[in-house]
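Here comes just one.
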Amino acid sequence: MAELTTNSTTTYVLLSTDPSLKVDANVTIDTSSSTSNDIDGYSGATWSVLNYGALTANSTNVNTWAIYLDGSATDSVDNYGQISAAGGVDLLLGGSVTNEAGATIAAKAAYQNGSYSSSISGVHVAGGAGTVKNSGTITSAGGYGVGLDNGGSVTNYKGGSITGAEDGVFFYASAGHLDNAGQVTATVDDGVGFFAGGTLLNEATGVISAQSTTGFGPAAVYFANIAGTLTNYGSMIGTNYGAYFDASETGCVVDNYAGALLQGGVDGVYSGVGTVLNAGTITGGSSSSSYSVDFVTASASNLLIVDPGAVFNGAAYGNGGTLELATGGAGTIGNIGGSGSFQAFTTLQVDAGATWTLGGSANTIANLNDNGALAVTGSLSVTAAASLNAAVSISSGATLSLSGTAALSAKVVGAGSVAITGGTTSINPSAVVSVASLSVTGASTTLAIGTGIGFGHTFSAGGGATINLLGGPLTLAGANSFSGATLTGTGTLVDAGASSVSGLTIGGTTTFWNIGTLTQSGGTVTVGDASGNAAILLNGVAGTYDIADDSGIAQGTSSASLIANYGLFEKTGGTGTSKVAAGINSVGTVMAATGTIAFSGTANSFSGTIGGAGAVSFTGGWSRIAGGTTVGVASLTATGASTTLSIAGDLSYAGNFSDASGATLSISSGATLSLSGTAALSAKVVGAGSVAITGGTTSINPSAVVSV
């Protein structure tokens, strides 16, 4: 190794035969009065310079360097001393530069308005990959602090400082890697620039800043042309952008870890298609067009992963991507959708094992995929698809609205509400639904029940909604209402609460089983639908079915659809007629407290009690009153050419009885109809039984035919 020990020289050193040069600490090389480099190493060898001295060259002439090596791709400089020139160190074919603690490399040439930035760098490596390790100070007044034209790696250790005007660190034609634990600063443009992709690791002690209001960014880091990866544990602040990726790029990656800061005066992160993970703080500007995270290219592949400890100063803009809520503790988030804190995201995903609280009164998302624990304390509207695979709790006053395709496969609980307003929502066998209110509304809305499920709170179905009963029974024990809804499928709905109905079609082969109190008013209940399948309205032993006005019960296309009454079937309101067109089999009580109940089903059978201060009329079909039936209703009538009233056993009746012209009153063999009130016989009275007039007044009108 050649060694310079002369105290001072103004003559440049030309490396020739010996490939290694050591400059001692007491040596000064100063060529500043000329345009020569301090040390030149031309082609033909691999050069190695170890400097402990002071190297000074012309500070204004572009392309004047303290050290200039053009030997091979493994040329190297190790600096313990002081280097100062227009440009610091230039390696023309690649190589490595190490700047030790306490050492300085200073490029003094002034900023050339973006020109000659490489030529006045603190360290410049061209022609091949470069490796720069810095524990000292590297500066450039007008160019790059470190510029690697063909990529490579830069390691800036804790305590190290790299400052550039154009960029602090710059990678151009090939991918680069920066590991920063010190300080990287740009006074004009970007803190770090990658023009061919690469990776940046900013350690917890690392600070990267772009301080100017001029330049392309300025951004703390700028990835141009090809996407790269940013991993930040420290502080990164740009006048306009914390991190900037071109809009055309895909595969952009930002990992901002706990305790880290990523900040820009316009956007914290400006990105093409990519992934941003935030566990620290990301800060954008204060204007309406500024964002903490801004995905500027629309894509479903955009992904923002939010750690429970994350802070976003400014809205995040997803541009069609996914907002993912990660594990790591209990997190709180809100104002998703619209002009809120998290805008234009298509999917909200809660990771397995994650615990999150969602606040805000206007959260809207197209798709929800919940695999963790989600607590809704405000409102959440899911408009396209929801997959609830883990627990969802809904606070008092809060609402989860589903209007697309939804699958509930876990616990959905709380004092709030679930509103199904469109699409199809399926409740799967693994689900438990226990909220204060569950509603199903809308002509295009279906609630599909694939399992036996009990619901003890307020349930409502209306507006043309469909309840598809596919599995075990749906048991409702709260205050329930049905207003224009349809049951379909093969299962059973058990109504054990205090319910109201103002319009309901019991379709498919379903059974509506009432064991509570069901009040009908304001609309028709239809037993059966247009499919031709037989459905059943079953009023259980403990059930009360109350018609509170003059509305009635219709029948679908199948005459096998029927009403089975084992409890109390009554009309308590309305002075007109409630028409019951579905056939009824009543072994319980039929009570007409007011107005008229008119039965016109194909086949009707009564064997319990028929009573009340109103009237019961048979206006079509065949109706049978079995022996032992108690008939105390104020008025009993059979009317219509297609009407047959069959008395199948002894019957004593003291009220007003009439059979109108065209009807048939049939008395079975061995049966006696005893009339002791006011009766008018105007139709056929036939059969092998008897009519006994035991009181009151009975009139046999001219149209009557009595043959008993």
Notes: The chain has no helices and 91 strands.
